[in-house]
Amino acid sequence: MKNLKKLMLFLFVAVLTSCSNSSDEDLGLSGEGTLTAKVDGQTWSSLKATVGAVVSSGVLAVQGSTSNGEYIRINITNYTGVGTYKTGDNLTNVNSISYGTIDPIASWMSTFNIGSGTIEITEDTATTVTGTFTGINASANNSTKTVTEGSFSAPKN
Fold first, then answer.
1. Predicted model pTM
2. Are 119 and 133 in contact (CB under 8 A)?
């Protein structure tokens, strides 16, 4: 139930901020996390208040979103802490890096044998997960998004 509440908070903040191009401060939000990357060469940065990490049942989930509803989500199954995790390298690997938008509704993902990516967890403390990531994500319409120079420092919820 606690994880469901956290997921609902992520979704609420994403919807709340989707109609605006505002910063955390403009929206009266506060947060500690960072999640940045380049998506197709363009700088991307989430609102601090939307960044969070959850570790549950051996799965790490990290997410952040912008004020216009773009998001990046990272999932690692069989999570064991600090180390390097691959995405998109075989059909049984469900680790993923996702980039998506809500206007229009679209998503690109590196998972199974779709795209390719690397997630490196550099620190995992009782309160924060920190790391870097890069990937080439594909969508159902065969378009791709290249995600480079990704980094995050996400408070654990």
1. 0.81
2. yes
